[in-house]
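Per-record layout

source: Paenibacillus chungangensis
name: tRNA pseudouridine synthase A
length: 249
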Amino acid sequence: MRNIAIRVSYDGTDFNGYQIQPRGRTVQGELEKAIKHLTGEEVTLVGSGRTDAGVHAKGQVCNFRTTSAIPVERWAIALNTRLPGDIIILEAWEVPYEFHSSKSAKRKTYRYTIDNGKFPDVFSKRYRFHHPARLDVGAMRSGLSHLIGTHDYTSFTSTHSTKPSHIRTIYDARLIEEGSVLHIELTGNGFLYNMVRVIAGTMMFVGQGKLQPDDIKHILDGGDRSLAGPTAMPHALMLVDVEYDEKSE
């Protein structure tokens, strides 16, 4: 039995999220169908995280166990010919049997993209949230700095979160400017349900002057979802990268 890891990119617009659902098209479902078509095996694909409906991925990592003898360097090409156009496998590699794409992950990076121009770009609006009113970038950067470190992020997760602990570590929180386009990038050891989208919505409140940068520390300490800003729309969120120990790469 082999354990194969794959790095996957997908446009989440037309998916009902990553994880298989009773109804609706999912990324996991399409990948498992392609693997069955290629090998005849029914596999259970493990993803590094469950992206919501409409959320995209540039570097989602998944793994599955197989008895197939297909050389590892052929998996990506073979599966891509059996996948729809909004999913692409970028690479495949063999990993130790105990490797688990979620439990073995050390760092994840998410990006939330805001188009702060007067008019949206028709060619990229599926991947950016358009906010035509000017945002205070300096205030947003200052607000983000309070999120770095190990904290209880209860204020920045959905009230529907089922995790037993909301303590996570954010290693880096940055705002990148590309003209009128703003990218909020967060790198951490894990993220809670809707956490990045709540942070993005709260930072836009800071950029609008509805909250002050130093309010973020008080929101964190308060441990109450109602203290933070709104949950930002899903279509501007992307899972950029998942990192592992070198022996797993």
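summary: Strands lie at 2-10, 46-47, 56-66, 87-95, 107-115, 129-130, 149-152, 167-178, 181-188, 237-243. The radius of gyration is 19 Å.
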